From TrEMBL:
TM region positions: none
Source superkingdom: Bacteria
Name of the featured protein: LysM repeat protein
Chain intervals with Low complexity compositional bias: 155-176
Species lineage: Bacteria, Bacillati, Actinomycetota, Actinomycetes, Micrococcales
Domain LysM residues, every copy: 33-78, 102-146, 176-220
Organism: Ornithinimicrobium humiphilum
Amino acid sequence: MPLFAMPPADLPSVAYVPTAVHSALPAVDRGTQRHTVRSGDTVYDIAARYGVSPTLIVHANNLSEGGRWILPGTTLVVPKASGSSSTASPTSVSSSTSSASSKVTVRQGDTLSHIAARHGTTVAALAKANNLKDSRLIYPGQVLTVPGSGGSSSSGGSSSGSSSAPARGASSTAGGTVTVRSGDTLTGIAARHGLGVSALAKANGISTSDFIYPGQKLRLPGGAASRTLDRAYDPSTIGDYKAGEKVEDTFLHYRYSDGVARSAAANREYLASIDVPSREKVRSMVVETSRRYGVDPQLMLALSYQESGWNMRAVSPANAIGVMQVIPSSGDWASALVGRQLNLLDPADNVEAGVVIMRALLSAADKQDHAIGGYYQGLASVREHGLFADTKQYVRNIKSLMTTL
């Protein structure tokens, strides 16, 4: 199998926001603030902290690559969105202490289902709290009220430090039933519980084309429970799951096939429904695994932090999955390297995949910069074309993180 690695993540931790996340930019007041970038900051995090659109920050600072490359120590102008009654303080959004509600800033790839799962609420409650007529129409940079979340205000998956999250979608009960939630489909419920759509429909005396509605209780045949996937979805396994659904299919200037985009959406949905390790736990896993394979832990900490912010729930439109942002084909390569099938949806396996891929790249490349660049660009491409401009910046970014993490 040729040496190639993962496309870049959709939510790298050292600040990236797609340049076309939302076409309608809010107007900007003359009032501005300044923010000095700290290690780990992203454009999304800064925008959430000040209650503005990340796109405003990108444009106000003329950030290239949509703000992908910002380094600690950089001073950014933070404009005030039109209509704000006063200049927001850095804690006005991200550290709400209200027991009744908090705020969350929508990130690229977010859905109400994902946000509800992360904050222990429901899609219906979110829609009601924000007066949303269509729960599908949310956009990056939008600030939502999260009802009854007791001050949790993570602005997306990569900023969550929680080690657990309630299951999204249909919620199981001990009696082998699920309660339909807003946005659920028979296909989605069946997939989450390892069932065929026809079997689920038959158990409930309905047709596979029948309408289901929030609050409806469905029986699970055979007392099925929420399943644990033994491997990530890819175009060869996704089948008709999520067929016809609008899913994110574009990253930077690349547009991915329907199969890849639907697989990424399904993997993202699955990871939103299960418990994942906290950032600190992920950090420990990266260090332990790196030492086990004889790879510099600081290099792997920097690379994994760049790729996902140590966030296991990150999945890019290219179907780069988890902490190490590994695509399934690269996961198969990593599996061959370790001699067993690695499950990219399992945090330990995901970290192991990234570490063994980097070990192979370090062994095959002439210099460390080419190995690091190979993780981003693909080593075959690096050998043929050299490091692209964005790859050179990626390498510099990794080296900077190696000294700060």
